[in-house]
């Protein structure tokens, strides 16, 4: 099961998607988790989520998904899990906050809030990563290469003639 979760090919398109998502999402997660980039930090972020109608547990998962998920994506470790978490955070943001503001971002400052086009792009990238995996230059790729022995094979006693090293 774990091998199927991390299995990925030497896919450079997946690498580009993974790193792009990580670079875009990390500052948002760091704002909420560490108060970097002018962000509120975790306590104020959770208060803000509650003010927008997002329950505290979902707000905590959002912070975790955006901060830890983006770091996991940089290294390509559990890329599908990280992308899933970020995708769910974006779906929650659309459903509970941004849907009421329409599709478009607030480029002109005339809307009451931001639309959901950005979130939709992130969801699309998350789905692509969940389908393709972490791709090239990832820990997932290194751990899922076919020439690596499986744990079940390492523990299985050898029968018959000894294998040559």
Task: Calculate Rg over CA atoms.
Answer: 20 Å
Form type: elongated
Look at the structure and give the mean pLDDT: 89
One letter per element, helices H and strands E, the order comes to HHHHHHHH
How many angstroms separate the termini? 29 Å
Helix content: 55-70%
The tally of structural domains comes to 1
- Main beta sheet, described? none
> What ranges have pLDDT less than 50 throughout 5 or more consecutive residues?
none
Put simply, the count of helices is 8
Helix/strand class: mainly alpha
Topology of helices and strands:
Blueprint: H1 2-6, H2 12-34, H3 41-51, H4 56-75, H5 79-98, H6 117-132, H7 139-144, H8 151-155
Helix pairs in contact: 2-3, 2-4, 2-6, 3-4, 4-5, 5-6
Q: Can you offer a commentary on this structure?
A:
The mean pLDDT is 89. By secondary structure, this protein is mainly alpha-helical. 64% of the residues lie in helices and 0% in strands. It has eight helices and no strands. The protein has helices at residues 2-6, 12-34, 41-51, 56-75, 79-98, 117-132, 139-144, 151-155. The two termini are 29 Å apart. The chain is elongated and about 75 Å long. The protein has one domain (15-146). Helix 5 runs antiparallel to helix 6 (117-132).
